[in-house]
């Protein structure tokens, strides 16, 4: 697998990535996930101002032959969604860690420490992807 | 053995290639205790000639009726070309178009069908068909519920004047999900129209959807504009359940009220599909563009091949069961492709002008019958409102006995409403399409007059199982 | 030229012999009338006939090609059966006709109910479900009604093997059940330990296909039935693969409580480019009261309908009338042509053809997914090795097969076998056809070795080249626009 797994991000076992900027988390799907799905044709995002829960489905990404649920890696309130994806889902294929981000969350303070502790480092996620290939 | 081409020599060679001695050995993984040796309850094999004789005898038992029965299935003229072409092996014996490049005939036809049906309904998009009208109505309701995720329970208003069997099907299919509540809306005894305004006082909660039949089960035309506006004013989705033939003449769902109905569905049978004991027919389902992702069933889209040439594929498949599994928009896999093939050819032959003429002829024939019946002793026309090609009459004698007597004259006089709508009394739903001549109608009225004039005690003794 | 019917429209043209001539003023109030003209084609009868005849020639079909689409049982659809179902007495019969004018149709429906009971080993049958998926729906709704009738309301979970058809979990969900997946062993059987661990007071039932979608017989079926019944759950049999065992083993004898039969598969009714189907259900004793209505019974010499009135516990009606009657007639006729002696040969020859094809492909170097198992009526080969070595996919091979005049097998299903083709030849194909298919497969792999691009770009000989499905989904174009011309 030659997909990129940036060191500075955190990952979930279900192939989401998380970036922390102060008290806001940005969430997307990994390069590996978008490669497995193929050309994306549709994205369903959570409602802004709604709450998402750790490990619960909160978005759907669809290609021609597959559909995948996106599980929120953290609990919190959705403060922004990437509206550009609604018109151009291919941004996820083209730039999964940049223009292809899905939504931003303001985490609940009571749960954030526990949530972040469960996330994988880039090395751990790399190992997981490698083990899934067998 | 019928349809098995193998010679003894073939079988020997094939078994040798596989490396087993006997055909039986191919089943060696199946526990012996489970094996059956023969099936005594199944009759012996027939040749095609023997079968033809048997089937002709059986078909003859059901033949020769002059049909004034409608109630959701309508006898129309079907041009010979329709089933000649639909019966071509290339349409008849193809499977679902999974290999698009090898299925361009079916796929292009479905795209043309979607265009025609969407336009006939005045809406943006159509799917490639569902099983039949009743289950299409159930799917339309499920679609409305999916589009209203925020409601805690989904309350759906269903007119009592909607086809009673459609109401039964909706109950069977939608009723599996406890979260959806079906609420019956009464009709006005004088006009036969649905009284949506009567609901106002009972409504404390949100309404998810309102079902609007046009024409309704009694053949009566509803004030579809007002019902659609009422639905939208209450934040509900407006679902039209319509006869597609009538839409060549009547205002289609997409044009109802200020904003148009959101979803339209119904039975496609009137457009080129024979009565044939109730099926196979096909259900149609159309909607505004905003609802397209909630649309169940197959959908065909136009695209290009790698040389830029126009072509057609199944699209939006990620909504479907083979990809989404437990989260699919529905469990539907099969559509009614062959019936849609017939219907598309039918619509192409008739065109907007021909289709309107058929609809007008149905209407005029029904009006002619109505005039004759209005002056007939023992017959009362029940609803005083505009209708399409069906009318409800109340008879002075029990309807079941009258139907049985007219059957002796080889007349199917219509559908007995009494068991389902006891509040209407001894009522009969009669349908006339373009297939009947004035002479047919006059003969029907004459026979009806004769049986109504029979002595009541004679009529009482008529045996009628059903 | 792939022009659409609309491209040929000229305002005012139509098939004048087909419309009534009457035209009088219509006195319906204006606000109820249509003002615009629907966008339907305006063509002559000849134009319509020619257009749709030409379109038909762009299809593969059983009548024209070998169609080994796994799990779909594309066998010969007898022409005589189609012709006889179109007899006027059957075509003109109104579904609500009185029983006295329906005895011909009802006799056929009744006898088919009895034939289906006999071949499935079940105690009751209803013909009304209109396709396999609706049969599944009826079956799961009956399981639900059964538990509810016993006040056993805590059963909220339906078990489904991970290899199941997508309709199984979709149906369970539509009936309000939570779906729990059961893993498959490496030999293709249901993992018994996982099943034991999964069952409990919350289990409503399990939905199984046997032979499974992996093309192998579930050998521990009796054990599975015992585990389920002990836990109070019922067994649903997905009849998609009934052709593999017709006349050999009966689902009722295996311990199943309810099943559907795909008439367009096992009983050779034409599938018309995606439908109609037919999905009758058959049940064991305890589910008989819940069967969907209407059904036909025989009383003396006459046939009568059983409706909601006679069957108060029925799950109800699934269609406005009585299901796909024309398909029921065709299936009945097919069963009569086969008869007892033909019926028990179906599975034998379907299995012979599948195992022969598998043996030949194996000899040619293809990899069976379950090499140690006997194939049922279908089997899976995996092109994982070819994908790695030759940089081609199962899709490429499928598209190239089309060029050689064969419909492609089912691709990428079941989901758990990578780069797979699910191949089902059916009993009605002759040995020479199977041999020609093997030759084409060998040739395609040879092509891949010298020029993989040849496969990646296929097909070449069809009305269109490979189609852009991504564009179709991103830029939805679902109807022709009237201003396009």
Written account of the structure:
The complex is a heterotrimer of chains A (134), B (466) and C (485). Chain A is of the alpha+beta class. In chain A, 28% of the residues lie in helices and 33% in strands. In chain A, strands 1-2-3-9-8-5 form a 6-stranded antiparallel sheet. In chain A, strands 4-6-7 form a 3-stranded antiparallel sheet. In chain A, strand 1 and strand 2 form a beta hairpin. Chain A starts with 9 loop residues before the first strand and ends with a helix. Chain B folds into 3 domains: 54 residues, no CATH class; 117 residues, Aspartate Aminotransferase, domain 1, CATH 3.90.1150.10; 266 residues, Type I PLP-dependent aspartate aminotransferase-like (Major domain) (Aspartate Aminotransferase, domain 2, 3-Layer(aba) Sandwich). Helix content of chain B is 35%, strand content 14%. Chain B is built from 13 helices and 15 strands. The radius of gyration of chain B is 26 Å and the shape is globular. Chain C has 485 residues and is an alpha/beta fold. Chain C folds into 3 domains: 52 residues, no CATH class; 259 residues, Type I PLP-dependent aspartate aminotransferase-like (Major domain) (Aspartate Aminotransferase, domain 2, 3-Layer(aba) Sandwich); 127 residues, Aspartate Aminotransferase, domain 1, CATH 3.90.1150.10. In chain C, strands 1-7-6-5-4-2-3 form a 7-stranded mixed sheet, sandwiched between helices. A 4-stranded antiparallel sheet of chain C has the order 10-11-13-12, covered by helices on one side. The longest helix of chain C is centred in the C-terminal third of the chain and has 39 residues. The chains are: A alpha+beta (134), B alpha/beta (466), C alpha/beta (485). At the B-C interface, helix 1, helix 2, helix 3, helix 4 and helix 5 of B face helix 1, helix 2, helix 3, helix 4 and helix 5 of C.
């Amino acid at each position: 697998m030659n997909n990129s797994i940036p060191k500075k991000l955190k990952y979930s076992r279900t192939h989401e990535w998380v970036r922390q900027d102060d008290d806001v988390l940005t969430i997307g799907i990994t390069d590996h996930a978008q490669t497995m799905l193929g050309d994306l044709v549709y994205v369903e995002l959570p409602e802004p101002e709604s709450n998402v829960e750790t490990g619960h489905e909160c978005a759907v990404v669809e290609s021609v032959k597959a559909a995948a649920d996106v599980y929120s890696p953290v609990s919190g309130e959705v403060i922004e969604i990437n509206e550009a994806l609604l018109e151009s889902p291919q941004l996820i294929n083209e730039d999964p860690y940049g223009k292809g981000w899905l939504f931003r969350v303001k985490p609940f303070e009571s749960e954030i420490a526990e949530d972040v502790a469960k996330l994988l480092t880039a090395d751990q996620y790399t190992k997981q992807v490698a083990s899934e290939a067998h | 053995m019928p349809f098995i081409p193998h010679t003894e020599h073939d079988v020997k060679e094939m078994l040798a290639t596989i490396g087993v001695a006997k055909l039986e050995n191919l089943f060696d993984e199946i526990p012996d205790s489970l094996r059956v040796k023969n099936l005594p309850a199944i009759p012996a094999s027939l040749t095609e000639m023997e079968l033809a004789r048997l089937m002709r005898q059986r078909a003859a038992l059901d033949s020769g009726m002059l049909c004034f029965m409608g109630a959701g299935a309508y006898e129309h003229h079907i041009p010979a070309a329709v089933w000649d072409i639909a019966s071509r092996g290339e349409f008849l014996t193809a499977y679902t178009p999974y290999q698009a490049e090898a299925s361009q005939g079916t796929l292009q036809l479905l795209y043309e069908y979607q265009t025609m049906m969407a336009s006939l309904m005045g809406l943006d998009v159509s799917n490639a068909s569902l099983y039949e009208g009743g289950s299409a109505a159930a799917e339309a309701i499920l679609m409305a519920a999916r589009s209203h995720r925020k409601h805690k329970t989904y309350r759906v208003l269903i007119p009592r004047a909607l086809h009673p069997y459609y109401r039964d099907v909706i109950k069977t299919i939608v009723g599996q999900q406890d979260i959806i509540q079906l609420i019956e809306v009464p009709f006005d005894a004088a006009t036969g129209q649905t009284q949506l305004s009567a609901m106002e006082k009972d409504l404390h909660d949100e309404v998810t959807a309102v079902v609007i039949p046009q024409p309704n089960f009694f053949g009566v035309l509803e004030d579809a504009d007002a019902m659609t506006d009422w639905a939208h004013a209450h934040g509900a989705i407006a679902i039209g359940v319509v006869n597609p033939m009538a839409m060549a003449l009547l205002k289609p769902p997409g044009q109802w009220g200020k904003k148009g109905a959101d979803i339209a569905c119904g039975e496609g049978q009137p457009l080129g599909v024979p009565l044939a004991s109730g099926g196979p027919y096909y259900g149609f389902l159309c909607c505004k563009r905003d609802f397209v992702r909630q649309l169940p069933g197959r959908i065909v889209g136009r695209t290009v091949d790698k040389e830029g040439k126009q072509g057609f594929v199944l699209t939006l498949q990620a909504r479907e069961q083979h990809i989404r599994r437990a989260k699919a928009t529905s469990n539907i896999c099969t559509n009614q492709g062959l019936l849609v093939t017939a219907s598309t050819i039918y619509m192409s032959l008739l065109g907007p002008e021909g289709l309107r003429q058929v609809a007008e002829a149905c209407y005029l024939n029904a009006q002619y019958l109505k005039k004759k019946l209005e002056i007939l002793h023992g017959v009362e026309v029940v609803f005083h409102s505009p209708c399409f090609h069906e009318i409800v009459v109340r008879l002075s004698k029990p309807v079941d006995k009258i139907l049985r007597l007219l059957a002796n004259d080889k007349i199917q006089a219509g559908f007995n409403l009494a068991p389902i709508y006891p509040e209407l009394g001894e009522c009969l739903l009669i349908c006339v399409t373009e297939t009947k001549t004035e002479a047919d109608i006059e003969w029907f009225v004459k026979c009806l007059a004769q049986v109504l004039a029979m002595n009541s005690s004679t009529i009482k003794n008529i045996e009628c199982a059903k | 030229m792939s022009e659409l019917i609309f491209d040929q429209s000229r305002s005012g043209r139509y098939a004048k012999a087909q419309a009534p001539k009457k035209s009088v003023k219509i006195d319906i109030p204006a606000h109820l009338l249509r003002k615009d003209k629907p966008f339907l084609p305006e063509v002559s009868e000849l134009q319509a006939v020619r257009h749709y005849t030409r379109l038909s020639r762009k299809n593969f079909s059983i009548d024209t090609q070998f169609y080994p689409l796994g799990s779909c049982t594309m066998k010969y659809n007898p022409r005589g059966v189609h012709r006889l179902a179109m007899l006027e007495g059957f075509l003109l019969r109104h579904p609500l006709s009185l029983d006295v004018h329906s005895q011909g149709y009802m006799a056929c429906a009744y006898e088919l109910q009895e034939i289906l009971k006999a071949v499935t080993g079940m105690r009751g049958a209803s013909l009304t479900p209109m396709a396999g998926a609706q049969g599944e729906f009826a079956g799961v709704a009956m399981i639900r009604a059964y538990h509810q009738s016993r006040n056993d309301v805590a059963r909220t979970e339906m078990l489904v093997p991970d290899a199941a058809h997508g309709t199984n979990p979709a149906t369970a969900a539509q009936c309000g059940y939570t779906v729990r997946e059961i893993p498959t062993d490496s030999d293709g059987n249901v993992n018994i330990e996982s099943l034991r661990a999964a069952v409990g007071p919350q289990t409503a039932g399990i939905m199984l296909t046997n032979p499974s979608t992996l093309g192998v017989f579930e050998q521990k079926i009796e054990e599975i039935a015992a585990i389920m019944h002990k836990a109070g759950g019922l067994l649903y049999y997905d009849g998609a693969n009934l052709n593999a065992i017709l006349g050999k083993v009966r689902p009722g004898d295996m311990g199943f409580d309810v099943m559907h039969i795909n008439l367009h598969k096992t009983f050779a009714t034409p599938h018309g480019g995606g439908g109609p189907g037919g999905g009758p259900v058959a049940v064991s004793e305890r589910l008989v009261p819940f069967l969907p209505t209407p059904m036909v019974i025989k009383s003396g010499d006459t046939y009568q309908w059983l409706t909601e009135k006679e069957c108060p516990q029925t799950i109800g009606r699934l269609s406005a009338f009585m299901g796909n009657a024309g398909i029921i007639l065709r299936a009945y006729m097919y069963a009569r042509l086969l008869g007892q002696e033909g019926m028990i040969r179906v599975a034998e020859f379907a299995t012979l053809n599948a195992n022969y094809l598998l043996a030949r492909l194996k000899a040619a170097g293809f990899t069976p997914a379950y090499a140690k198992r006997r194939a049922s009526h279908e089997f899976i080969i995996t092109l994982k090795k070819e994908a790695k070595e030759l940089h081609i996919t199962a899709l490429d091979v499928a598209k190239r097969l089309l060029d050689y005049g064969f419909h492609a097998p089912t691709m990428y299903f079941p989901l758990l076998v990578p780069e797979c083709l699910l191949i089902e030849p059916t009993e009605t194909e002759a040995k020479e056809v199977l041999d020609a298919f093997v030759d084409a497969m060998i040739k395609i792999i040879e092509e891949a070795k010298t020029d993989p691009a040849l496969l990646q770009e296929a097909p070449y000989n069809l009305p269109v080249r490979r189609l852009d499905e991504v564009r179709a989904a991103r830029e939805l174009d679902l109807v022709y626009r009237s201003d396009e011309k």
